Amino acid sequence: YRRAAVTSAVRETHDSLMAARSVARLSAAAWGIYKPPAGWNTSSGYDQLMQDAREWTRLGIIDAIAPMVYWRIAATYGARTDFAYLADDHARSVNERHVYIGMSLEHMIANANLGTELPAEIERARAAGAEGVSVFSARLMREQNAWSLLRNGVFAKKATVPGMSWR
Question: For residue 33, which of 72, 76, 70 has the smallest C-alpha distance?
Fold first, then answer.
């Protein structure tokens, strides 16, 4: 019932935007683990947070999701909370809507690996087929001078804005 109520709220927001003929796009930051694979013993956006972002994209009531995949790329693909596995999982399940993989700088800064991990996660999100990334947080990006790292590296080439053919 609670998951259906959240989906209903997303639908009502979408319908209100459509009725107003708004040019606004509806997106949501969703938990980074939709449903954990067997053996992960982790939280679940679907079961614990009542988020069914995949249903929202299937129903066409949201334009984009930004799953908060705030973990590292694991040494072994598919290991518990592996960024690469989760990016693939989200990117292949968006039903023709956009996915922007969310990543956090906190673990990169804590491990003193920002210069290698951030570009690697961006490249991995691209390899998964995501339309883009969302980085938490702008304050940390500024404090760590990460904008210039990206501008001179993985963001050196100007991006194209992906269209939304359904709009």
Answer: 70
